[in-house]
Structure formats: structure tokens, C-alpha cells
């Protein structure tokens, strides 16, 4: 067994099993049995569960305040607008942003597409002079990493294909760490955008944001941070990290599906061309043209996801009241327990950082002689929910010589018993499949 | 439904034996008309290439190359044993029957007379997420057969 380094050892601030058991009472879905066994939910990296306070916030909105926002002078419209904008402030505050720097999206995927389509619009004839700084063409380069989720890869591929820009990537080493020496050679004067994930949804690595931001700054490139696996799990301060944009999804942080957010520095957002156009985002409209409001309305055309925004704010309040730093510390412990436990089972190859090295509370792994789908099916028969497949990261899997892996991902409602039930089941997989 | 009803012994055995696997190593048989089809399950990345060769109205050979879960690999192996020697019409009837059972969500029993070892996949129809795994090679074979006949 590898000794846990001092900085990862249990801090007094971390949650503990007793507190987690109390937390679990807030999550009705976790109280059930699956296939005759108590549900062990280890798929929060894909989507998380909702506490009662979040479910109630959404229901309360519909029971008492449902109305269109930013229009109408009646009581409900005023109340709906107020809770909607309060929700924005709550979520913005949670990531260290100002209220007008937080744009509601459906999810992180839409946030990234909003950016790439806005940059595409800036590259087309007729773009305003303000937008020129985002225009791309031949000779420009976009840089991502080899570990990206498809959501932070394909939009950039499409943007490159449509503008003539070139898409480059920072490679990873066999342990799954970014090759920073290579990055220093790849990021240069032609680089216009550097987009990378804060924490890998497969490897569990936390990427060195300051080092990457420094490279981008010296090249004059914009920095886009995929915070899908960080915003829900660790303290995130977009200003301290000095990124230009960040995206995350509500459903991975105790909120319902259909809501996420894009953070952008206000000066940039107000110069960017809109992505979607239509109602609610305009100043004056004639039959020929329209003027656009500043951020955030500039990027929020049409009736918004009001109840989901309210629910996301309730989720953020739940995380804040529990303490995101304490959640992070607890999940770091669970992550170590996962890696150490998996490492002691013959035939298991864990991806990403070794035991004892920093990782978020998830672990993806390969089982020798057993396909990930079969592993997942076996675990399901014991009531254990995990993710199987390529986790929307085909290039990363290909780089590691795999097509599919199994991933267990924890959250604030997982106990060490959950992890141990999972480890005990994994230990039986190869015998069952005669591998 | 228990896990053992899904993973019947015959499925676990075929997932290891992989009859018919090794397409790359074998040339298409001379004197037969061959067709080939590549199928992908984008949700999990499983993929398979199946080559069907037809001579004198019968399937003279079925070979495949693939990477996937035990259900998809066993299914291709069982299909190989069944298909070789069948007439084109017999193979089509078996594929249709297999598809019907697999899509029945557990409501239809497999006919062991018609499906032979493939009847063991009956239980898969209760696992919506796994139906594609079992169907992958059969869809490829159907497509490859069409190509062989058109060649």
C-alpha cells in the first residue's frame, strides 16, 4: 500500500461517514433497493442526484411564482424575475464571478457551442468591429488537450473546419498527465484559444491551470475552462484562476437536467456576437436590423429555463452550506480508497494518477479479460451503478490502448461503505466471467 | 431476473471460443460471392466486421473480426455456427426471428428449433441497453449477405 502524502491526508474539515449518512436522508432516490440490494450510486460523474431542497425549490417555483421573466408588470412576473436573477447571483458568486458574467445554458455542451458559434459569427462577413478580436482564419490555431470530453473537442473541430484555423492538442503521457513541455512548444503566437478541462472525467486528474493559463497569456490566447468535473466537487474561483471562460452543467452538481452556465469576462462577452437571436436579447428592432443587449441577456434569447435556474441555485446553496472544501476533501479520500482498493485486485488497471497522487473522487479502470459492459452489468446485479464505455472520450481511450472502461465516481452522499461494496463486487468480476 | 439468466453458460463459453473470429487472417473463399459489413455501436465503441460468402445459394463461410462485450462476441460466434451451411432464405429467416425475439422486451420466447444456440440470447431482450450488443453481428451479417448477393 502506498502511503498517502501529507497534503492528501484526512483534513479536519472533511466530511465523515456519520455526516454523509445524514446527508443521504436528503436524497430520496438513494433510499431504494435495486436488484434486491441497497442502491450504491457511483455514477455522479455522469449525473448527480437531487436533494429535497432542490426538488422543492423547483416545485415551489411552479406552485407560486411561475411566469415569464423580464417582461410584464404583474406580481408573478416580478417575483419570477427576482428569483431568476437571484439564482444567477447565487451561482455566479459560487464560482467567484459577477452576476452579469454568468449566462444560463442548457448544459456545458451548449456553453461550449455558444462560444464556438459566437467566434464563428465573428469570423463571418458583416461582423461588428468589436467582434474582430474573436475572428478566426487560416494561420490561426486552437489548442485543446488529448484528454478532453467530446464536448470540449468537437465544437473546436467544427470551428476550425469552418474558419480554416488549425486545431492542435497537448498530448498526455502514459499516466494520463498533460505533457507541459510539449504544451510550451504547441502554444505560441498563432494560438488564439486554449480550451482544456479542469478535472478529467476519466482520469480524475486535476490539471495545472496556472501553468496552462501562463502559457496562454504569454501567447495572447483566450482561455476556456471545462469545469464540469470541478465546479461540483472543488472550490472554483474563475477570477483567481484567471480564465476567460468556464462552463459547467447543473445536473452534475445536484440540480436537474436542462440547466448549466457559461462564465465569461464581461468585457469579452459584451464584444462577442450573439449565438442565438430572438426575443428578450434586443434593444431596438426594425424590420431591417436589431440592436443587442449587453451580457447576460445578449446570450439568452427566448424564454429561459427559469425553474431549473432556481433549482440550480438551491443546489449551489446545498453545496455551500455543506462546504465545498469539505466535500472536496471527503471525495479526495474516497478517490484514494477507490484507487488503492482497485490496485489490490488482480487484473485491474486503473487509469490516471497512481495511488497517493492527487485525484478527484473517481476512478476509471480496465478489467483484464472482461469487457466494461459486462463489468457494469455484473455490478448492477448487486445494486451498484457505474458508468461503462468511452465516457465521451474516445481519443483518450485510444491513446491508452483501450476502447471502453468502467468508471466509479463519488459525490458528497457516498460513504466508505459504498466504495467497499463496489470494491468487493469488482473483486468477483473476473471469476464470474471466467477470465 | 438473475444475472445467470442473462449470462447463460453457453454465452460465456462462446464469448471465449469466438467461432468464426479471424477475418483479417483469411482470404475470402474462391468460387464464392462475398460481401462485408462493418457495424459500430457508438454508445460503447463496440465494433465488428462480418464477411459472408455465398456459393450455390448457400452460406459457405462466415468470418468476423470484432471487439466488444461478451454478449456481442458470443452472439457473433453463435451466428457463425448457425449460418454456415444454411441457404440464403434460411439465414434471413433466422435473422428475422432473432431480431423479433431480441426486440420483444422479454415478451417473446425464442424457438430453439429455429434459433438453436442463439435461443440462449432470449434473456438479453429484458435488458434494453444490451439488445444492440447481441444484434451487432447479426445486423452486419444481414448487410454483408445483401452485398454478397449483389456482387
What does this molecule look like?
The complex is a heterodimer of chains A (435) and B (151). Chain A folds into two domains: 6-50 and 323-432, Aspartate Aminotransferase, domain 1, CATH 3.90.1150; 66-320, Type I PLP-dependent aspartate aminotransferase-like (Major domain) (Aspartate Aminotransferase, domain 2). Chain A is built from 14 helices and 17 strands. Chain A has helices at 17-24, 52-65, 75-94, 108-123, 154-163, 180-186, 209-219, 238-241, 266-269, 306-322, 324-343, 372-380, 394-399, 416-432, and strands at residues 33-34, 37-38, 40-41, 102-105, 141-145, 166-170, 191-197, 222-226, 245-249, 260-264, 282-285, 290-292, 348-350, 362-367, 384-385, 387-389, 405-409. In chain A, helix 2 packs antiparallel against helix 10, helix 3 (75-94) packs across helix 10 and helix 4 (108-123) runs parallel beside helix 5. Chain B is an alpha+beta fold and 151 residues long. Chain B has one domain (3-18, 34-150): Sufe protein. Chain: A. Helices cover 46% and strands 19% of the residues of chain B. Chain B has a three-stranded antiparallel beta sheet with strand order 1-2-3, with helices on one face. Chain B is globular. In chain B, 44% of the residues are buried. The model of chain B has no long low-confidence stretch (mean pLDDT 94). Chain A binds chain B through residues 370-374, 377-378, 381, 388-390, 394, 397, 403-404, 432-434, and chain B through 2-3, 6-7, 12, 15-16, 43-46, 67-71, 73, 127, 130, 133.
Amino acid at each position: 500500500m502506498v502511503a498517502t502524502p501529507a497534503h492528501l491526508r484526512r483534513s479536519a474539515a472533511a466530511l465523515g461517514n456519520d455526516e454523509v449518512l445524514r446527508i443521504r436522508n436528503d436524497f430520496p432516490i438513494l433510499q431504494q433497493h435495486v436488484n434486491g440490494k441497497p442502491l450504491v450510486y457511483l455514477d455522479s460523474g455522469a449525473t448527480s442526484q437531487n436533494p429535497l431542497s432542490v426538488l422543492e425549490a423547483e416545485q415551489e417555483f411552479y406552485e407560486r411564482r411561475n411566469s415569464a421573466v423580464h417582461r410584464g408588470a404583474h406580481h408573478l412576473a416580478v417575483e419570477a424575475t427576482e428569483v431568476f436573477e437571484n439564482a444567477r447571483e447565487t451561482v455566479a458568486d459560487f464560482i467567484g464571478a459577477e452576476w452579469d458574467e454568468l449566462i444560463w445554458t442548457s448544459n456545458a455542451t451548449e456553453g461550449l457551442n455558444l462560444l464556438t458559434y459566437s467566434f464563428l459569427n465573428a469570423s463571418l462577413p458583416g461582423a461588428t468591429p468589436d467582434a474582430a478580436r474573436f475572428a478566426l482564419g487560416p494561420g490561426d490555431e486552437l489548442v485543446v488537450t488529448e484528454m478532453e470530453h467530446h464536448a470540449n473537442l468537437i465544437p473546436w473541430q467544427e470551428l476550425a473546419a469552418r474558419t480554416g484555423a488549425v486545431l492542435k492538442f497537448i498530448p498526455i503521457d502514459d499516466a494520463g498527465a498533460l505533457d507541459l513541455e510539449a504544451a510550451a512548444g504547441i502554444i505560441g503566437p498563432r494560438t488564439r484559444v486554449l480550451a482544456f478541462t479542469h478535472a478529467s472525467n476519466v482520469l480524475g486528474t486535476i490539471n495545472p491551470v496556472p501553468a496552462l493559463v501562463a502559457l496562454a497569456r504569454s501567447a495572447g490566447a483566450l482561455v476556456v475552462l471545462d469545469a464540469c468535473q470541478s465546479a461540483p466537487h472543488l472550490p472554483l474561483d474563475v477570477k483567481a484562476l484567471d480564465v476567460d471562460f468556464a462552463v459547467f452543467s447543473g445536473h452534475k452538481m445536484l440540480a436537474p437536467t436542462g440547466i448549466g452556465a457559461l462564465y465569461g469576462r464581461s468585457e469579452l462577452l459584451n464584444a462577442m456576437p450573439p449565438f442565438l437571436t430572438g426575443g428578450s436579447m434586443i434593444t431596438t428592432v426594425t424590420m431591417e436590423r436589431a440592436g443587442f443587449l449587453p451580457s447576460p441577456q445578449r446570450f439568452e434569447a427566448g424564454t429561459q429555463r427559469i425553474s431549473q435556474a432556481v433549482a440550480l441555485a438551491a443546489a449551489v446553496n446545498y453545496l455551500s452550506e455543506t462546504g465545498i472544501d469539505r466535500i472536496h476533501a471527503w471525495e479526495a479520500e474516497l478517490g484514494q480508497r477507490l484507487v488503492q482498493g482497485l490496485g489490490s485486485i488482480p487484473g485491474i488497471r486503473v487509469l490516471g494518477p497512481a495511488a497517493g497522487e492527487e485525484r478527484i473522487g473517481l476512478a476509471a479502470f480496465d478489467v483484464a479479460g472482461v469487457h466494461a459492459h459486462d463489468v457494469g452489468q455484473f455490478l448492477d446485479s448487486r445494486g451498484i451503478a457505474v458508468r461503462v464505455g468511452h465516457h465521451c472520450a474516445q481519443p483518450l481511450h485510444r491513446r491508452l490502448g483501450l476502447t471502453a472502461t468502467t468508471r466509479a465516481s463519488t459525490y458528497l452522499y457516498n460513504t466508505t461503505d459504498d466504495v467497499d461494496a463496489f470494491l468487493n463486487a469488482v473483486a468477483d468480476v473476473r471469476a464470474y466471467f471466467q477470465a | 431476473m438473475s444475472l445467470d439468466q442473462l449470462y447463460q453458460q453457453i454465452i460465456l463459453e462462446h464469448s471465449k471460443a469466438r467461432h468464426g473470429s479471424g477475418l483479417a487472417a483469411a482470404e475470402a473463399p474462391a468460387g464464392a460471392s462475398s460481401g462485408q459489413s462493418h457495424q459500430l455501436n457508438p454508445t460503447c465503441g463496440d465494433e465488428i466486421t462480418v464477411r459472408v460468402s455465398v456459393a450455390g445459394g448457400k452460406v459457405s463461410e462466415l468470418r468476423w473480426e470484432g471487439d466488444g462485450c461478451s454478449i456481442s462476441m458470443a452472439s457473433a460466434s453463435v451466428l457463425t455456427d448457425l449460418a454456415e451451411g444454411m441457404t440464403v432464405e434460411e439465414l434471413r429467416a433466422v435473422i428475422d426471428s432473432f431480431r423479433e425475439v431480441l426486440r420483444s422486451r422479454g415478451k417473446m420466447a425464442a424457438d430453439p428449433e429455429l434459433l438453436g444456440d442463439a435461443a440462449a440470447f432470449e434473456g438479453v431482450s429484458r435488458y434494453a441497453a444490451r439488445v444492440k450488443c447481441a444484434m451487432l453481428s447479426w445486423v452486419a451479417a444481414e448487410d454483408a449477405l445483401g452485398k454478397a448477393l449483389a456482387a
